[in-house]
From TrEMBL:
Organism from which the protein derives: Providencia huaxiensis
PROSITE patterns: HTH_LYSR (PS50931)
Protein name: LysR family transcriptional regulator
InterPro entries with a match to the protein in the record: LysR-type_TF_proteobact-type, LysR_HTH_N, LysR_subst-bd, WH-like_DNA-bd_sf, WH_DNA-bd_sf
Family: Belongs to the LysR transcriptional regulatory family.
Length: 305
């Protein structure tokens, strides 16, 4: 039996992940009619239905569930093939995508992009912002700068920095509400929380102090927006301690108390991309910027890739 190959499998994966023909067409930048035709063609060649077409979208069949792992392996091999085929290209040119958060993009990576534009004008950097981790084995990014260390064996990770997380306010806030008192469960205080479905559950404490009696005035899905909210004087919030160096209006409450889990930043590169000249150049500049901007305030700074 002859199969059309990776192009049709790519359509299958996009349809599986989006549960719709329209979603797959958007993801692949392909006409919806073409997506439908390719899926139908693949089903004919397999002799089995892959999706039930329903008013609510595509519903994978048992066959689709069975072949999913093989399709994902084809995807990983395709990405690896492309990366390895570029391995002999020592030119500092081409596209490099970085997956990161809005906070890290604004506070660090924009500086890296500026250096890259001056130093390597033929390297084009794309930033993909979001709290969800990019799947680098699927080619969603060549480099990631994230706050969690990945466990996948095909990823190379180096820690760029580690900070305490403290409780912060501004003088405007303290003038209005006064400083909180230990042991009072943050009673009569407004707090803002970082609450994102891709992060750990929101703890019921702030730097170890119960927040039982606090007023939660904002639940924010963006860490940068949390910083902006606290800086505006509208609430108390937990922030990584390097930010008091960047934003002098931030005042740390209870300087001897910190959240148990530190705020870490990791640089991650897929092993197949690590030696590409353009990827290596971007990776080195990212490390350079972090070391330059935070070295006086960071613990356990490690070397670049």
């Amino acid at each position: 039996m002859y199969l059309s190959g990776w192009d049709d499998v790519k359509v299958f994966l996009a349809a599986f992940r989006t549960n719709s023909l329209r979603g797959a067409s958007i993801r692949l930048s392909m006409d919806q009619t073409t997506v439908s035709r390719r899926l139908t063609n693949l089903e004919k060649q397999l002799g089995a239905k892959l999706f039930y077409r329903t008013p609510d979208g595509l519903v994978p069949t048992e066959v689709a569930e069975r072949v999913l792992g093989i399709a994902q392996e084809m995807e990983r091999n395709s990405v690896s093939f492309l990366r390895l085929s570029e391995g002999s290209n020592g030119e500092f040119s081409g596209d490099v995508s970085i997956a990161t958060t809005d906070r890290l993009a604004v506070e660090f990576l924009m500086s890296a992009v500026k250096i890259l534009r001056d130093r390597y004008p033929n390297i084009n950097v794309t930033m993909k912002l979001g709290a969800q981790m990019a799947d680098m084995s699927r080619g969603e990014a060549e480099i990631a700068v994230r706050i969690q260390r990945p466990a996948a064996p095909d990823l190379i990770a180096k820690r760029l920095g580690s900070w305490d997380v403290g409780l912060y306010a501004t003088q405007t806030y303290l003038d209005k509400f006064g400083p909180p008192e230990l042991g009072q469960h943050l009673a009569n205080h407004d707090i803002a929380l970082y609450d994102n479905k891709f992060s750990s559950p929101v703890p019921d404490t702030m730097v170890g102090e119960s927040r039982r009696d606090a007023r939660v005035v904002a639940r924010l899905t963006s860490s940068f927006l949390l910083t902006t909210f606290v800086r505006s004087g509208m609430a108390l919030g937990e922030l990584p301690c390097y930010q008091e160096q960047r934003y002098p209006e931030l005042i740390r409450i209870w300087p001897d108390k910190a959240r148990k889990k530190k705020y870490e930043v990791w640089k991650v590169v897929h092993k197949d991309a690590a030696e590409l000249a353009r990827v290596k150049a971007v990776s080195e500049v990212i490390s350079e910027v972090f070391e330059r901007d935070i070295k006086p305030f960071v613990a356990d700074l490690q070397s670049s890739l």
